[in-house]
Amino acid sequence: MGKFVIMNEMKFSEDQLEMLLNFGFRLCGNLDDARDLVQEAIFRLLRKRDSVSNPTAYIRKTMVNLFIDERRKKIIPLNIRELPEVTIPDNTKIIHVQNCLDKLTRIQRVVVVLFYMEGYKTSEIAGEIGISQGTVKTHLFRAREKLRNCLEGYL
Questions:
Q1: What is the pLDDT of residues 79-100, one digit of tens each?
Q2: 29 φ, ψ to 5°?
Q3: 111: Cβ–Cβ under 8 A, 6 or more apart, which residues?
Q4: Residue ranges per structural domain of the chain
Q5: What three-state secondary structure class fits 6?
Q6: What is the mean pLDDT of the segment spanning 61-65?
Q7: Which CATH architecture describes the domain 87-155?
Q8: Is the pLDDT score of 76 beyond 60?
């Protein structure tokens, strides 16, 4: 049986925390920032724990909102060259893809991560981040175009 982390009477498995950290890394591309996102989201959950029925969903939505809000406050260059400890066969392709992801707006990146990496439907993304389904589709379209142009002839 896996280990659990208990925070103010809330119990999280190591697998849940790893999944949240992975999600945070996919959003911001930096392990330290991902840890900060998870920590802040859990802190906010603990303040509202009595009114939250699905803690994991609440944390994920809070992470997305925090990630988007950070962009509204100030423009921060995304640094996604820092990878978790994983063996990667061809680092140059990964770095080029990451450089292309850097060119997306934060909202485009969130939509791409939720759609392609987390398997959300466009209607689920719309509900998750509070925009219309049409706007989600527009962001996906524009992100695909940017990625296609950036990756053209490379992969």
A1: 545 444 444 455 677 778 778 8
A2: 75, 10
A3: 125, 129, 136, 139, 140, 143
A4: 10-81, 87-155
A5: strand
A6: 89
A7: Orthogonal Bundle (1.10)
A8: no
Partnered with residue 13 across adjacent β-strands are 4
β-sheet bridge partners, residue 4: 13
3-state secondary structure of 4: strand
Exposure on the CB side of residue 102, measured as CA atoms within 13 A? 14
Give the per-residue pLDDT at 130: 86
Question: Which pLDDT score, from 0 to 100, does residue 83 have?
Answer: 41
Both structure tokens of 134: 């049409």
Do the beta carbons of residue 74 and residue 100 sit within 8 Å? no
Q: Is 67 exposed, middle or buried (0-12, 13-18, 19+ CB in 10 A)?
A: buried
* Cα 66 from Cα 68, distance rounded (Å): 5
Q: How confident is the model at residue 11 (pLDDT cuts 50, 70, 90)?
A: confident
Q: Indicate the DSSP class of residue 114.
A: I
Which residue reads 């990667």 in tokens? 88
